[in-house]
């Protein structure tokens, strides 16, 4: 006799599609060992396969024509750059990585997220991951077990180690953005207070990451979220952030000499730059030199290291110092221009830059348009602030950072959440019952 398994309870079944997405985020809390793909990268690949199987089983179209165009646009530049790579192996490796981060994983997130409740779950997963990595980073600073900074092992890097000093800063920065978006929404007061507390608490590990780029991206994004949420809320939250900063910098003694010097160096990048800034300027000059040599298609995927020295100035050092957080001292070669826009321009040319950035611009315009409609007439303000905030953070960070390391998969997840908010064919509401008026509002917003 055949016995059918009992169906899952309705509430439990509602969580099933979002669990694989949350698993990818959760696996970024696991320390990454080795140079290959980390557990989160591997599961993100399985996530794409799972999504394909799900679509074949249900027999439905995966994406709307607009979503397919926006997310598929970068493939044109990537294919041309892959054919121009120095070797077939480099071309295929680079093509696979770019497709994973900017096309396949975001598309899978767009398909699997069904309503605003799913987006909120993933936003809280971002906050929880940031809290875990941030707590480890603070412990590293206090105990002197972090990455080396000015000869002292105090730089907070979480589980990402000295090889990826930007990893924890990126995770915490995105967590702050999600927490601020949740706090500015129209959720119950307890939820908003909890989110605001998380945002304030994450400022400490963000400061101890000593990452000027993450500081700038987070500050600009939170300012944009406050402005989009309304002037009255912006004033209240800004006052709370200033008070929290005073407490952290003064009351708890976070304002160390190294941190104060790092903050002051933000305004000295042109007048008296340190060696890291000098190296970055030299790498940027090298990238623009490659672009001038091949303006349309670039030098090919993963070819920047090969062409770097031929276009670099004498100011470029041999590499950066890596030490601490479990790493013995060694020099790490500078293999990218540390700017996503210049990396794409040098390796993919104008075609790659326009196709990739064109998709991001379309996501930003569509996301902001829907956010403004929701702010005036409907629910979901927190989801709009989160989705648009994630994209604004990434676009700002890409000015002085690029993809690389285990934390990069979080970039793909963030782009996927933004894509759902901006491009979802049917922007479903919450999993809870809604009245007819709310349904009509969401239908109008979707149009």
Give the arrangement of secondary structure elements:
Elements: H1 10-13, H2 19-27, H3 39-58, H4 65-72, H5 74-83, H6 88-112, H7 116-143, E1 147-149, E2 152-155, H8 165-183, H9 189-208, H10 212-229, H11 231-251, H12 257-265, H13 275-293, H14 304-311, E3 320-324, E4 327-332, H15 340-377, H16 381-397, H17 408-423, H18 436-446
Antiparallel strand pairs: 1-2, 3-4
The topology string of helices and strands comes to HHHHHHHEEHHHHHHHEEHHHH
Low-confidence stretches: 1-5, 426-447
Query: Mean of residue pLDDT?
Result: 83
Q: What percentage of amino acids are in beta strands?
A: under 5%
The order of strands across the largest sheet is 1-2
> Helical amount among residues, as a percent range?
55-70%
Characterize the largest beta sheet: strand count, sense, and whether it forms a barrel.
2 strands, antiparallel
> How many strands appear in the DSSP assignment?
4
Query: By helix and strand content, what is the structural category?
Result: mainly alpha
User: Which descriptor suits the 3D outline?
Assistant: globular
Tally of domains? 1
Distance, first to last CA: 51 Å
- Count up the helices: 18
What gyration radius follows from the Cα positions, in whole Å?
A: 22 Å
């Amino acid at each position: 006799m055949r016995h059918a398994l009992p169906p899952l309870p309705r509430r439990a079944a509602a969580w099933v599609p979002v669990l694989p997405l949350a698993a990818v985020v959760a696996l970024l809390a696991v320390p990454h060992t080795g140079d290959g793909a980390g557990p989160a990268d591997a599961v993100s690949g399985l996530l794409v396969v799972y999504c394909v199987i799900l679509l074949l089983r249900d027999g439905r179209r995966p994406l709307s024509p607009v979503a397919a165009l926006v997310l598929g646009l970068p493939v044109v530049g990537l294919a041309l750059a892959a054919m121009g790579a120095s070797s077939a192996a480099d071309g295929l490796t680079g093509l696979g990585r770019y497709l994973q981060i900017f096309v396949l994983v975001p598309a899978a997130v767009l398909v699997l997220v069904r309503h605003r409740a799913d987006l909120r779950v993933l936003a809280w997963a971002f906050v929880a991951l940031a809290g875990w990595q941030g707590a480890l980073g603070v412990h590293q600073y206090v105990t002197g077990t972090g990455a080396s900074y000015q000869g002292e092992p105090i730089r907070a890097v979480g589980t990402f180690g000295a090889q990826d000093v930007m990893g924890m800063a990126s995770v915490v920065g995105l967590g702050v953005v999600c927490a601020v978006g949740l706090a500015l929404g129209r959720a119950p007061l307890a939820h908003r207070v909890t989110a605001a507390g998380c945002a304030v608490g994450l400022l400490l590990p963000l400061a101890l990451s000593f990452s000027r780029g993450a500081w700038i991206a987070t500050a600009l994004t939170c300012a944009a979220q406050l402005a989009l949420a309304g002037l009255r809320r912006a004033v209240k939250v800004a006052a709370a952030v200033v008070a929290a900063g005073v407490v952290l910098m003064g009351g708890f003694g976070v304002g160390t000499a190294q941190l104060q010097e790092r903050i002051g160096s933000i305004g000295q990048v042109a007048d008296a730059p340190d060696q890291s800034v000098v190296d970055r300027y030299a790498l940027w000059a090298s990238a623009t030199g490659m672009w001038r040599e091949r303006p349309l298609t670039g030098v090919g995927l993963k070819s920047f290291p090969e062409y770097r020295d031929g276009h670099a100035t004498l100011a470029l050092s041999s590499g950066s110092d890596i030490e601490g957080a479990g790493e013995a001292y060694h020099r790490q070669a500078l293999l990218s221009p540390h700017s996503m826009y210049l990396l794409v321009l040098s390796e993919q040319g104008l075609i790659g830059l326009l196709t990739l950035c064109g998709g991001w611009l379309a996501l930003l315009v569509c996301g902001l348009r829907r956010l403004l409609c929701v702010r005036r007439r409907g629910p979901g303000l927190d989801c709009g602030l989160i989705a648009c905030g994630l994209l604004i953070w990434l676009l700002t960070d890409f000015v002085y950072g690029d993809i690389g390391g285990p934390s990069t998969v979080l970039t793909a997840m963030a782009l996927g959440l933004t894509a759902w908010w901006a491009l979802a064919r049917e922007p479903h509401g919450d999993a809870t019952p809604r009245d007819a008026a709310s349904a009509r509002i969401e239908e109008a917003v979707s149009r």
